[in-house]
Amino acid sequence: MPAVRDVSFTVGADEVVALVGESGAGKTTTALAVLGLLPSSARVRGSVRLEGTSLLDLSDRAFSALRGARIAMVFQDPRSALPPVHRVGALLVEALQLHDRRLSRAAALARAAQLCTLVGLPGRTLDAYPHQLSGGQRQRVLVAVAVANRPRLIVADEPTSSLDVTVQAQVLEVLHRAREAAGASLLLITHDPGVVAGHADRVVVLRDGQVVEQGDVTTLFDAPRQDYTARLLRAEAFAATRSEVEPTGPAAVELVDVHRTFRSRSRWTARAADEAVAAMDGVSLVVPRGATLALVGESGSGKTTTALAIASLEPPEAGTVRVVGTDVSTVPQLGRAERLALRRRVQLVFQDAGGSLDPRMTVRQALAEGLRASAATGADVAGVLRLVGLPAALADRYPHELSGGQLQRVALARALASRPEVLVLDEPVSALDAPVRAELLALVDRLRDELRLTCVLVAHDLGVVRAHAELVAVMYRGRVVEQGPAHVVLDDPRHPYTRALLAAVPVADPRVRPAPVPLLDDDAPPTAGCRFRHRCALRAALPGDLAQQCTQVDPVSRRTEGRDVACHHADVPVQRHP
Ligand code: SF4
After folding, report:
1. At what angle do helices 404-417 and 434-451 cross, to 10 degrees?
2. Is the model's pLDDT at 577 over the cut of 50?
3. Structural domain of 300
4. Which among 245, 270, 277, 393 has most CB atoms closer than 10 A?
């Protein structure tokens, strides 16, 4: 069966075309066909032309020479796209000299330094290995490699889907600048309606391997002809709030001044174990029974460590984590039966459902363990599958036979099989397309209400947080910098970091083009005073004496306007920001 058929579209000079569609619609296959990277077993018919050159008629050698020169690519996972054994400088020099053999090493190095500047990275990045860089920095290196030879077309396959909103905004800004500098067109594969609206000129919609609709971005957002297109381009209803009533009642989850530190290799030196990174630095929060708390923040903020601590998988070094009445720091001293009982009452659902399920086990076998733990309730495989909206016929399938949405439902079913009281969901929908994501979140909401679950949701999509959580805790470098009812924090954020997160969310409206984003060239935090101050827009606008307070005194969390916020100047009106 063909993966794609009768796919026809054009990308004009200097144009950005977004290729959208559910997983399995044929987006990546189409991109790989354009790049000549489909496996040799694939049969490709038709015509792919780049400025008059018929790409499908090229020999492998001629296509290789063209790739990286006239067509370049930026993939989703820069970790696998960048060879780990080469420094960034060597990678860029190689990319440049491969397509211009007369270029001297000195000239190539000078151009590599220019490329680093173009993508907002400091010159020392040239001496770094890919593993010494953050995900966003690696993606910027990939953009620099892509535009090194001033290509005519860049193909970017989900270039930001694994990144946090602030890092995503920076990588998109870098891609925009680099594309303009190179004078290239862009074929952009993305499942994010905000990214489509903010960056594309035209949109091509794929379904089951065929183009079902295409047109300019405003027309497709305003008047899509297909319901399918409307569902794909509809963002999570950001205006819809789960509840404006602050949840109260006995706590199901309570953290008091929790600390957790990891040793880590420095980003910029080869010395091992020379940095202590505080993943949790005095984290305190409460989730009343039946409520949903969202943990948000960039990678490295400590939100996943906090979620794992609640799931009793990451014991705290100091402080108290109390879950359904049990202090999890006492878990090592508990007997096996008590430990298992606690594990049964608190269940975790991971982002990568496929990776969290054993590929050798059928769905039935995967669910059996949880069901054994709750044998007294009389639940069975078919019943648990029904609970998550899956047919009983799926019970004898293996994970590789399921779609992404089905896998995530099976992971949810496995968690629910033991009848937990607390469900910890770590980015449960971030790998899914918009329609599947909306269905799964609606299911979690329904189950939460029906089964009276308490939920802790790790999320980077603030639209998801708003629609599905009553409470939110915003984390930055191991600290909770702002927390309170979701509608209070998201409607009127008081911490400059919360404001920055909200400002970075792409808006699913083509009339609202993203504002230029300042590129951060160094993410090393200050060691004294407020740890956010090197990125803080508010501090930059403060008079000297107030700004000095940020430099000298570490802010502690205090109650203001219905939420807790750790900023000396949370009361300064927002219009004073630059
Ligand atoms: S304390 Fe100062 S630097 Fe820190 S977030 Fe507040 S204004 Fe910004």
Report:
1. 10
2. no
3. 251-487
4. 277
At which of 200, 233, 266 does a domain end? 233
Residues 130, 34 share a domain: yes
To the nearest 10 degrees (0 to 180), the angle between helices 105-118 and 88-99 is: 120
C-alpha of residue 489 to centroid of ligand 1, in Å: 17
Cβ 481 under 6 angstroms from ligand 1: no
Residue closest via CA to ligand 1's atom 1 equals 567
For residue 9, tell me if it sits in a domain.
no
**Mean pLDDT value of segment 477-489:** 94
Count CB neighbours of 401 within 10 A: 12
Q: Which atom of ligand 1 is nearest to the CA of 533?
A: 3
Query: Which atom of ligand 1 is the closest one to the Cα of 530?
Result: 4
pLDDT the model gives residue 199: 93
- 496 in a domain, yes or no? no
- What is the rounded average pLDDT for all residues in the chain? 86
Atom of ligand 1 nearest to the CA of 547: 2
Alpha-carbon span 82 to 74, nearest angstrom: 11
Task: Give the Cα separation of 461 and 306 in Å (integer).
Answer: 18
Domain total for the chain?
Answer: 3
Domain final residue, candidates 429, 459, 487: 487
If we measure between CA atoms, which residue out of 427, 6, 21, 3 comes closest to residue 196? 21
Q: Convert the pLDDT of each residue in 72-86 to its tens digit.
A: 999 877 777 788 889
Determine the distance separating the centroid of ligand 1 and the alpha carbon of 568, expressed in angstroms.
Answer: 6
CA-531 nearest atom, ligand 1: 4
pLDDT category of residue 390 using cuts at 50, 70 and 90: very high
Q: Is 84 in the same domain as 166?
A: yes
Ligand 1 atom nearest the C-alpha of 549 is 2
Confirm or reject: Cβ of 550 under 6 Å from ligand 1: yes
3-state secondary structure of 258: strand
Looking at this predicted complex, what is its ipTM?
Answer: 0.99
Quick check: CB of 539 below 6 Å from ligand 1? Answer: yes
